[in-house]
Design a protein that fits this description.
The complex is a heterodimer of chains A (about 525) and B (about 180). Chain A contains 17 helices and 21 strands. Chain A is of the alpha+beta class and about 525 residues long. Chain B has 3 domains: about 35 residues; about 60 residues, no CATH class; about 60 residues, no CATH class. The model of chain B has no long low-confidence stretch (mean pLDDT about 85). The chains are: A alpha+beta (about 525), B mainly alpha (about 180). The interface between A and B is medium-sized, with 18 and 14 residues.
Chain lengths: ~525, ~180
């Protein structure tokens, strides 16, 4: 049962107000909202979180160490988009990043950017529309998506892609498919990595004269007597994950702060508060800095959060390699071309082109890793050669001359497997899967041509759908249902766009669309002083 | 019954007192002893003069020849670069630097209070493009370039000068690099 809905939050807030009138600022001084709640539940679950700061109200500093119009927190897709737009709107901008390197998760992402009606789709003869993309997002999101936000992403993602190409200079050269979408709509960067876009954005902001301060960690937001965010307290020279490192400094944001600090997939304490199943038994695909303290700091400053317990596991990761690895790029290119097999039975068990949540849940339910496989027609055609080669070198992808060899290697009952492959091939022939309704692509062929390639799959924590509540202007909404003045947010730190499930390739779209909106609006804020 | 309980609680209180007294003292002792054994960073020390910083602590094997007058080139006949006796990873890189004539001042400057050295300083001697070329054949990946950061990653993320170096890539990957 999902518990973190707005109604309950409102109820909690009302409960609090019974003990006296609690304005947002009062709330900050006393209970400190959800941050405090999270800490309390953390204790109840016997979780300790290293370096967690006790909630406290931050008074205005006597002196600001630095002053900007717009302060962006985080240097991934959303942060860099916001910084570019704010700068181009005439604001003086800085970007802070707690890690020693820029780019967050964006620089290690797979480079798939979903957008409808793109050049690559037209060249491939794919018919698509914002309406269809929105429908796919809502269906996968179990209709928990905040419709207005989802619609903005669907409607504006093509513009965002074109801006990434024509203004930023990133190249997108390949059209991919991701489970849960009705059509191929993932426009992939030339190097199959988000780094193509991040590094070109990074070069762009340097060219525009925006500085990025790495090893600079947000400690807390600073609010004035009207409850407006006026700046932030940071640790400079912070050395992740040493909470004792760094020197305190105060950065004034004359117009606004844009929070683009990403999700909390690597935050074991916070993710277990939200979803107690997600213990350290589950690895994550994320960079180590994907922790939730900036999100919680925003809550302590009055920001409301939603749907925090919808945490996505990637169903395409391998237990035979660390982190994201190479297997996701192998697996996702093969769904709709090759079958996914339960090695215990030798049979298929789920719709290969199902969305991430459905597939991850199906694998976790089996309780052991499963196999994805493809033949020498599908694999060279579909899989990025570098990913295949690296996956093989890492030992996570294996090559077999015959299906029997493959079965033997994974302890699959050979006869059952042989029958199942014949059945799968018959579905491919008629382009219709009678068993699980897998989408079979028009150019798919029966899996018969050796050698065969296979990999084991076991889910890893990948994306946190929940986060801060924002409106259509990327303005953060508070526990009083009013905008938190001076605070904008975009990307994975926000919640609502994806509802229960984020579809593959929509993170890039979300980050660029809302990052730009946040940057533009932050620059437009009236300076407070 | 009540008496036993009282005695028990008194004993427990006593035990708690000793724990409260000795546990912090114990940790303090560890801190002091490790503090004392940490080598000094004497900028005037001759490269091969271990005792100048390490004092009486023995840092070389007992049968090791005297190093007082040695520079890096004198080490190499015995410690071949990639061989079993290689000094790579056995000694902080600051030592190799110092032995090769790169003194503290050459990186940190003359300031009384030494600051951390920026990557810009490293690349005045170590050209990134040349490093990429030099390590192109290392498996499974070239450690000096990546699809994420190209050759722009800060040297100090892996190559620490005054403490053990690390393999930064391994926070997500599994590359068995031998990081000097």
């Amino acid at each position: 049962m999902k518990k973190n809905n707005g109604k309950e939050k409102k109820a909690k807030l009302e409960q609090k107000t019974e003990h006296g009138s609690v304005s947002r600022r009062g709330f900050l001084k006393t209970g400190l909202g959800l941050g405090a709640l999270a800490t309390a539940s953390g204790l109840a679950l016997n979780l300790t979180k290293k370096g967690a700061h006790a909630a406290q109200f931050k008074p205005m500093p006597k002196k600001w160490d630095e002053t900007y119009d717009v302060v962006v927190i985080g240097s991934g897709f959303a942060g860099l988009s916001a910084a570019i737009e704010a700068k181009n709107a005439g604001a003086k901008v800085t970007v802070i990043e707690k890690m020693p390197v820029h780019g967050g998760n964006s620089i290690i992402n797979g480079g798939d950017f979903c957008a409808p009606d793109t050049k690559l789709q037209k060249a491939a003869g794919v018919k698509d529309s914002p309406v269809l993309m929105y429908a796919d997002m809502m269906k996968a999101g179990q209709y928990l998506n905040h419709p207005e936000l989802a619609r903005i992403v669907a409607n504006q993602s093509r513009d965002a892609l074109e801006w990434s190409e024509s203004y930023v200079g990133a190249q997108f050269t390949r059209l991919n498919y991701h489970g849960g979408h009705s059509v191929k709509r993932a426009n992939q960067t030339i190097n199959a990595s988000g780094s193509e876009l991040v590094n070109k954005m990074f070069a762009k902001i340097k060219e525009l004269g925006v500085n990025v301060q790495t090893r600079t960690k947000l400690v807390s937001f600073i609010t004035n007597k009207d409850g407006r965010i006026v700046g932030i307290e940071v640790l400079k020279g912070y050395r992740f994950p040493d909470e004792k490192s760094g020197k305190v400094a105060y950065i004034k944001a004359a117009r606004a702060v844009v929070l683009t600090s990403g999700g909390f997939s690597r935050d074991l304490a916070l993710r277990q508060v939200e979803d107690p199943r997600l213990t350290d038994k589950f690895e994550s695909t994320n960079q180590p800095g994907a922790t939730g303290e900036a999100l919680l700091a925003a809550c302590m400053a009055g920001a409301m959060n939603v749907q925090m317990d919808w945490i996505q596991l990637g169903p395409w990761t391998s237990p035979d390699e660390k982190g994201f690895g190479h297997v996701p790029l192998f697996c996702e290119r093969l769904v709709g071309y090759g079958p996914m097999i339960d090695p215990k039975t030798g049979k298929r068990f789920f719709k290969e082109t199902g969305n991430r949540k459905e597939r991850a849940d199906a694998i976790i339910l089996l309780g052991h890793p499963v196999i994805i496989l493809g033949d020498s027609y599908a694999v060279p055609k579909q899989v990025f050669p570098n990913a295949l080669q690296k996956g093989i070198e890492a030992g996570a992808i294996k090559k077999f001359n015959t299906l029997e060899d493959l079965a033997k290697n994974y302890d699959i009952p050979v006869d059952a497997f042989r029958q199942e492959m014949a059945r799968w091939n018959s579905f491919v022939e008629k382009k219709k899967d009678d068993d699980f309704d897998c989408m079979i692509f028009p150019d798919a062929k029966p899996t018969v041509t050796g050698p065969f390639y296979a990999a084991r799959l076991w889910p890893k924590v990948h994306h946190t759908m929940g986060g801060l509540v924002i409106d259509k202007n990327a303005q953060v909404i508070g526990f009083d249902f009013k905008p938190v003045k001076g605070l904008y947010a975009a990307g994975e730190v926000t919640g609502g766009v994806h509802g229960a499930v984020r579809l593959g390739g929509v993170a890039m779209a979300d980050c660029i669309v809302f990052g730009r909106i946040a940057g533009q609006n932050a620059a437009k804020e009236k300076a407070w002083g | 019954m009540i008496q036993t309980k009282c005695r028990k609680s008194r004993e427990m209180a006593k035990a708690k007192f000793f724990i409260a007294l000795f546990v912090p003292l114990f940790f303090l002792a560890i801190l002091v002893s490790t503090g004392l054994s940490a080598p000094k960073k004497v900028s005037t020390a001759k490269p091969g003069d271990c005792a100048a910083c390490h004092e009486s602590k023995r840092v070389l094997p007992p049968d090791h020849p005297d190093t007082k007058q040695m520079g890096l080139s004198a080490c190499s006949p015995c410690h071949q670069k990639m061989g079993e006796s290689s000094l790579r990873t056995k000694m902080p890189v600051s030592h190799t630097h110092n032995l090769a004539g790169v003194t503290c001042e050459k990186c940190h400057g003359k300031a009384q209070k030494r600051q951390a050295v920026e990557m810009a300083k490293c690349i005045t001697c170590h050209n990134p493009a040349k490093l990429v070329e030099k390590t192109a054949k290392i498996k499974p990946e070239n450690p000096h370039t990546s699809p994420h950061y190209g050759d722009s990653l800060d040297c100090n993320l892996c190559h620490h000068q005054h403490e053990k170096s690390e393999n930064y890539c391994n926070q997500c990957h599994q590359f068995n690099f031998n990081v000097p």
